[in-house]
Amino acid sequence: MRKVKIDVPASTTNIGCGFDCLGLALSLYNTVEVELIEEESIFIEVKGEGEKSIPTTRDNIIIPALKMVFDRVKKKLKGIRIREINRIPLERGLGSSAATRIAGIVAANYLLDANLSARDILKMATLLEGHPDNAAASLLGGLVAVTINEREPAWVKLSVPETLKVVAVIPRIKVPTKKAREILPSKVSLSDAVFNLSRLAILLPSLTAGIWENLSFATQDKLHQPYRSSLIPQMNRVLEAALAAGAKGAFLSGAGSGIAAFVSENKAGDIGKAMQDAFLEKGIESEVFILSVDKKGCKINEER
Ligand code: HSE
């Protein structure tokens, strides 16, 4: 029966001031294979990140993603075999859940000839995720500015110069996005809102035009990072260490716990080491990923 294999990129979001509206796809990929089978059972195999913790039952988050598409075409999800090869660390701010959900929706769209548009796919993923930024980047690739307008996702995909690299330092600490959202206030001051808006207005043209000297202040934030610092020991120290080592800008990756830095020259290794050392001051071990921007987003790379 039909089978599809999908590569889906990780993403870093918020980028400091762009809470819930900026996503950047990264060159770190999960591979997901989905096959329709005769037997009326669900088989799930998980390798790599989360192989001991991710459910291999209907509780796996890919199932509701697949089911949304089955429901759309009025078919029942009966027999399916799924193989996840996960490289994106879980609950560390690199969009692993969005990547899995996007892969599920894209796979079902192909297998069922559901003819979904990018907007349909992003809308479904956003319903599951609760926010569109990681899903938009994983689906579309590149730098994506995204919002929800009258319940429909709307976005602009932007390209950034090839020289931009992202150093993501991923500590052992897991931060579930739900917890990192619950900690945020429901109201913010006008001055904090203007702080972020004015930085966002500088950040986007600076990223697309390669005006790197603006990034150190344009990646600052007052809407989420200050509140989340209580969940991520050393967050501010790691951000400072990245800038002191020569990063162009530094920010909490998504909801954390990972911290990302923009790098434009060949200093990525030193910057990653400085960030790791800052975590180590409190005995927190971490892993460094030196990544490029993924331009293509989720791709079907094998089908039958
Ligand atoms: N924009 C979201 C947040 C990303 O910061 O909560 C979470 O992955």
CATH topology of the largest domain: Ribosomal Protein S5, domain 2
Structural category is: alpha+beta
Q: From the 3D coordinates, which CATH architecture of the largest domain would you assign? A: 2-Layer Sandwich
The small-molecule ligands in this entry are: L-homoserine
Question: Count the helices. How many?
Answer: 10
The helix-strand sequence is EEEHEHHHEEEHHHHHEEHEE
Biggest sheet descriptor:
7 strands, mixed
Number of strands: 11
The first-level CATH class of the largest domain is given as: Alpha Beta
- Helix content estimate: 25-40%
Poorly predicted runs are: none
Mean of residue pLDDT values: 97
| Overall radius of gyration | 19 Å
Mass-distribution shape:
globular
Account of the protein in words:
The chain is built from 10 helices and 11 strands. The chain has 304 residues and is α+β, with helices and mostly antiparallel strands. It folds into 2 domains: 3-158, Ribosomal Protein S5, domain 2 (2-Layer Sandwich); 165-292, Alpha-Beta Plaits (2-Layer Sandwich), CATH 3.30.70. The strands form 2 sheets. Strands 1, 2, 3, 4, 5, 6 and 11 form a 7-stranded mixed sheet that branches. A 4-stranded antiparallel sheet has the order 8-9-7-10. β3, α1 and β4 (80-86) form a beta-alpha-beta unit. α3 (118-129) runs antiparallel to α4. The longest helix is centred in the middle third of the chain and has 20 residues, at 190-209. L-homoserine binds at residues 13-14, 19-20, 95, 131, 133-134, 177, 180-181, 224, 254-255.
